[in-house]
Amino acid sequence: MTAPRPLGYWLITLDRLLEEQVEDAVAARGLTRREWHALGRLEHGAVAEEVAEEMLPALERLVSGGLVELRSGEYRLTESGSELVGELQTGPVQAVAERAAEGLSADEYDALLGSLERVATNLGWLASRPDS
């Protein structure tokens, strides 16, 4: 085993590796990482046009691709967009999650997630916040 590394090192490393591998998985379907994040956000509900500024370039491409629509001042997934999100989540994105958890028992995985949630809560994260 290598020398112990702090929690922050592992969190940053895992985040980077997960982002890279999910980015590769969705790129095979012609999506960028930002577009995938925008689709994931829209899966949880419409986003008002005035608060979508940081996602705008990705949203514009998704609108032109028929995956997202702007209706009544809100960006929403189209049926095609919703289907694509479902396909990616149960296919290549799920494969990344499964690869990440390989070698962990269900109990170990649950304990890992519980521990990470506790650390986040200790640092001020609240599950009831709208952005959580």
Please summarize what this structure is.
The chain has helices at residues 7-27, 33-43, 56-64, 79-90, 92-100, 106-122; strands spanning 47-48, 68-71, 74-77.
Annotated CATH topology of the largest domain: Arc Repressor Mutant, subunit A
What class would the helix/strand composition place it in?
A: mainly alpha
- The total count of helices amounts to 6
Which value, in Å, is the CA radius of gyration?
17 Å
**Portion in helices:** 55-70%
Count the E strands: 3
**Which regions are unreliable across 5 or more consecutive residues at pLDDT < 50?**
none
CATH homologous superfamily name of the largest domain?
Answer: Winged helix-like DNA-binding domain superfamily/Winged helix DNA-binding domain
Organism: Nocardioides daeguensis
Protein name: MarR family transcriptional regulator
